[in-house]
Design a protein that fits this description.
Number of domains: 1
Helix content: over 70%
Number of strands: 0
Number of helices: 9
Length: about 210
Amino acid sequence: MTLFLSGGLNLWLLVAMILVAALVFIDRLLRLRKIAVDPQDFFQGVCNVLDKGQTDEALAICDETPGPVSALVAEAIAHRDSDDVNLREILAATAHAELSRLERRSMLLSLFAQLMPLLGLIGTFIGGYAALAAIDAEAPLVQTGVMIEAVAGALVTTIVGLIGAACCYAAHHILLLRIDALSLDMDLSVSLMLDYLARNPEAEETHEQTL
């Protein structure tokens, strides 16, 4: 505890950033797990409903299922009467928006990973200056304990900063791997829906009749 107190304000700021990063990581990880669905199973279930001409029910299934995969399928169903070029542009814009939403908070971990070593280094310089001041005050008879405590207080911020940065860096990449997996699922769902609409041109007629 004495070591932490000697670390100064920078050390407590680093500890606060580590706690925030841990909360963000847990929140994003649980969120990504919650919205992860099997795109083929989901697509098959929606297509079974569409084959019966129940467009509203298919959209309701998409609304009840959280995540970017269901959002893309819903957009494809809602704009199924558009031509292929427009439909692809709509789905691309939706995919970009969904990915941006997923990456928004996870970027905070990347920011922390870059800031923590710098804050730790600044804390070390401040602690080093305080250590020199303490040694100068004790001169010429400087006790070993005073020197060790002063130097330890100067170095602890860099140690905590590097450990925190490494953890944030690892956590950020874990989230990126899960987001990349979701991105692949999104690409697969788009391909499946475009293929389904191409093989079922009568679906557009059913949609227009429903409207």
